[in-house]
Amino acid sequence: MERLITWIEIKEKTSKLDKSLKYYGVPRGGQYISALLNPVDSPEEADVIIDDLIESGATKKRYKELYPNKKFIALFEKKHGDDWLVFPWETKEEPVEDNFKRILQYLGEDTEREGLKDTPKRYIKFMKEFLEPKEFNFTSFDGEGTDEMIIQTNIPFYSLCEHHTAPFFGVANVAYIPSDKIVGLSKLARTVDLYANRFQNQERITTQIAERIQQELNPIGVAVSLKAQHLCMCMRGVKKHDTWTITSKLLGVFKEDLNARNEFLSYIK
Ligand code: ZN
User: Fold this and answer.
1) Which pTM does this prediction carry?
2) 202 is an active site residue
């Protein structure tokens, strides 16, 4: 059985201790108790070393060996077979789902109705799945002889706007001109997902994709462009439902050479 210890009980017990003495609290539970007395930051400065609970006695033994001249006490003692003691600082926080439930209630929803009853749980699961970073191995191959642009167009992506947590989604185009290394084509799409599946802004995703490819493959150039619709723009305020935001990041030869840039742009039209 569990027995929940209350702050009142702790206060009662500590009120019987001599507050003119200096107390060092054993981390972590003892610290809450010493804070109610006359705390010091190290056992050396203390008159008494205090813990919340003596259970096996191992902690007491350890402190007695280190500081044989210091008095060691505990506020509670638990013997074999006694109830399991739970201190106020050990109680679990409310499940995170309850916070989301409260937001729904604040928004005027009846969270007990059929359709919403399990929504907080589903929402957390959905978010965790979506936001899970899907790191992968950027296995590259010898790209000897490949010195032309490699481009992948229309890679679909989904992301969440970090300002409103509303989705934004669209397509990505990713191109690079290898120097000596090439990468499996699926890895370009996975790089897009890796940076899109977060709370993001479109500009940052674009830059992160380009920089990652640059870093992994050291190509002559990288070009990334993203075209997306932002639900925070479509659903509220200006309600522009056919507005597309286009971002791009050009590195190396794509930045320096107009021909390379134009070739990329001609492919993504
Ligand atoms: Zn937004």
Assistant:
1) 0.66
2) yes
pLDDT at 236: 80
Specify whether 144 is catalytic. no
Q: How far is CA 88 from CA 31, 49, 241, in A?
A: 13, 20, 52
57-76: average pLDDT: 93
* pLDDT at residue 191 tops 80: yes
Strand partners, 200: 161
For 115, other C-beta atoms within 10 Å of its C-beta total 8
Q: How far is the CA of 164 from the centre of ligand 1 (A)?
A: 4
Distance 107 CA to ligand 1 centre (A): 19
Q: Which residues pair with 11 in a beta bridge?
A: none
Among residues 216, 203, 190, 193, which one has the least CA distance to residue 248? 203
Cα 98–chain centre separation: 19
Distance CA(219)–CA(194), nearest Å, equals 20
How far away, in angstroms, is 130 Cα from ligand 1 center? 18
Per 3-state DSSP, what percentage of the chain is helix, strand, and coil (rounded to 5)?
40, 25, 35
